[in-house]
Amino acid sequence: MAIIEATGVKKHYDHGAIKALDGVDLSIEPGEFVAIIGPSGSGKSTLLHMLGALDAPDEGTVVIDGADLAHERDLASFRRRSVGFVFQLHNLIPTLTALENVQIPLVDDGTRPVERTTRATELLRRVGLADRLGNLPTTLSGGERQRVAIARALVNRPRILIADEPTGAVDSENSRLIMELLKELNRETGMTLIVVTHDPAVAEQADRVIRVLDGRVVTEAA
Fold this sequence. Notes:
Rossmann fold; 4-stranded antiparallel beta sheet; alpha/beta; 6-stranded mixed beta sheet; 222 residues
């Protein structure tokens, strides 16, 4: 059974003048690593919002992890349970340490402080930052900040990780390290990985590449 199923998804803006998505059908299997590519304005970011339960379609259905989003009253709670996000800009809180930043998604879900600390510490070790727990973001390199963001995205143990241009703000060496980390997590945990990218070198590492153009899926290649 697919972990994400989009059927006839449409999303329009400006009273229908802008067709960001124009009838997208898409299925993603559990544990799959999928890259979504397309030029600026193609609709790939809007598609990401649909697949990550950040927004709802005007028409069509999106089913994520067995839940039809049309019937989910609280999308924020749903996202916390099922989806982790990594963005091009890490969006870390500058006044909090790496350890504190990673714990943020757990603060409102009832997780005990000791459990929050344990899980965040384990994940920072997993991403190679065991010696940076107490560092503020301003004292970390760009690649280190992005690895903190990856740990934060994983702290709720989501079944799906969506990464929007995760290597767009780092150099080539850090890009390589980040992609190796994401692929390793995908293989070891069985987590579904969806990466939106402009970089062909990133896309070619995926199990499948989905190309979006003018609000439609135009090609899918293994």
